[in-house]
Specification:
- There is one protein chain.
- By secondary structure, this protein is of the alpha/beta class.
- The chain contains six helices and seven strands, in the order αβαβαβαβαβαββ.
- It has one domain: Vaccinia Virus protein VP39 (Rossmann fold, 3-Layer(aba) Sandwich).
- It binds S-adenosylmethionine.
- It holds the Pfam family rRNA_methylase.
Length: 190
């Protein structure tokens, strides 16, 4: 029997596979080890485009190697900069954006997303989103800066105008050890 509620990442993958289609323009705001970037690149097809951001050279390099191995590098632009500067690099509307926050698995835990730049990045990203576009955020409240980030994101998203956005929160409320939380924002068409 298929399970719908495995964890936040699994729900992200399911939404991605449904929402991102051939020809889509999408953003991976935190490429890390490149799993999401690779999946997105395979979904957008030859006519689509993926923009990927990370502040760490290691993340950019390991993602580039993965993409080249899978012959997907031609449709991806990897950008070594903070996602808060997204509008410096993207001058078009996008259909889907994923923020998988926190630190690089296997990397330095001190290099992690921070609430101030994350909120700025989400604000700028929402401006770039097409009508009916989706922005997903996975936040990890199990570590100290993730806990602050979760509170700030919660405060910020609660105030988004409901005429413009539908905002959802998937929180696994009967699990111990602070599992990741998924926020989903859909831009309404007016
Ligand atoms: N999506 C990734 C994957 O599929 O492997 C996992 C992402 S990892 C949890 C978070 C990443 O965010 C790290 O690689 C980290 O370097 C990056 N990061 C931290 N601050 C950032 C910022 N301001 N802008 C862009 N990326 C940032």
């Amino acid at each position: 029997m298929y399970k719908y509620f495995v964890n936040a990442i699994d729900i992200v993958n399911n939404i991605m596979k449904k929402r991102v289609v051939e020809g889509s323009t999408v953003v991976d705001a935190t490429i890390g080890n490149g799993h999401d970037t690779n999946l997105l690149a395979s979904l957008v097809g030859n006519e689509g485009k993926v923009y990927g951001f990370d502040i760490q050279e290691d993340a950019i390099n390991s993602t580039r190697i993965k993409l080249e191995k899978n012959n997907l590098d031609n449709r991806v632009r990897l950008i070594k900069d903070s996602h808060e500067y997204i509008q410096k690099y993207i001058n078009e509307k996008v259909d889907f954006i994923i923020f998988n926050l926190g630190y690089l698995p296997g990397g330095h835990h001190s290099i992690t997303t921070k609430s101030d730049s994350t909120i700025k990045a989400v604000e700028k990203s929402l401006e770039l989103l097409n009508n009916n576009g989706i922005l997903l955020i996975v936040v990890y409240p199990g570590h100290s800066s993730g806990k602050i980030e979760k509170e700030k994101i919660d405060d910020y998203l609660k105030l988004l105008n409901q005429k413009e956005f539908t905002v959802l929160k998937f929180d696994f409320i009967n699990q111990i050890n602070h599992p990741p939380i998924l926020y989903g924002i859909e831009k309404k068409s007016n």
